[in-house]
Amino acid sequence: MTCHAAVVHSPLYACDIGLHVFPVTKYARVREALAGAGDIHDSEVLEPPHLTRDDLLLVHTEEYLDDLDQLRWTPRTMWSELPLHADVVRAYKVAAGGTVFASREARKRGLGVHIGGGFHHAFSDRAEGFCYINDLACAIRVLQRDGHVSRAAVVDLDVHQGNGTAGIFRGDDRVFTLSIHQEANYPVPKQRSTLDIGLENGTGDAEYLRRLEEALARVWEFQPEIVLYQAGADPFHDDLLGGLALSLAGLGQRDRLVLEGCAERSIPAVVTLGGGYARRVEDTIEAHLQTCRLALRLAREMAERRV
Ligand SMILES: [Zn+2]
């Protein structure tokens, strides 16, 4: 089956972070599962291109990038909750290239699927919460610089607020940042997104989807030229770092509201995987798989309509 969406991934994402709650092997497992089921041909998966320092400087500061390059443990890098090794830093830089690439391709094909990315806790000048480089922000800034888009939206549905992304784009009226998250969870304090929906502990499918529909109406009104979707799997009810109560089916409906909403409006959309720390890693992978499969199906339908 030909894959119409751009599917992007690098084996480098499986860097060694030691014994950790963040399952970095999930990316390769999602790719293998998609290829194994015939959703994609492995040979169609695109390798992220290298980002230049100028690209990264569109989002991050010189001092912070120097700390990363020199592997210096400073107040700018120490809140990553990750080791600071060369292969770890490289994984995050490559992932930023992956989201940039998936976004460029999404402008041509309608959809980009990055089996990676969604590192929304990285600020312009510091790391936080398992995130060194904010790939979502890099993608938007590179596309804007290159004249591919002016107005962009980030739809961040990870259980944790997209504080880094909100901080980076604060005061920029060309970028709409939506974050729907669990209010009583990391990060504390939160940053101000364009629209924040802080949900009560234990919020389930029906209430979540109702609030999401209302929020998306505001995104559609904004008329973005691209949507970066942070499709975190951690709103799942059995997540170790999340306290919401979505079912797998609820997460699937969530994905449909976002991605079908974009497709109906001909807005290019980019999937990034974001967080996911289910007690059983298979549940995290299943949630990511259903997001990717929906995107692939929508891309196929778009291509069929074009013929
Ligand atoms: Zn998260």
From TrEMBL:
Keywords: Hydrolase. InterPro entries: HDAC_classIV (IPR044150), HDACs (IPR000286), His_deacetylse_dom (IPR023801), His_deacetylse_dom_sf (IPR037138), Ureohydrolase_dom_sf (IPR023696). The keyword Hydrolase applies. GO terms for biological process: epigenetic regulation of gene expression. GO terms for molecular function: histone deacetylase activity; hydrolase activity. It comes from the Bacteria. Pfam families: Hist_deacetyl. Residues 20-289 form the Histone deacetylase domain. SUPFAM superfamilies: Arginase/deacetylase. Belongs to the histone deacetylase family. This is Histone deacetylase. The lineage of its organism: Bacteria, Candidatus Eiseniibacteriota.
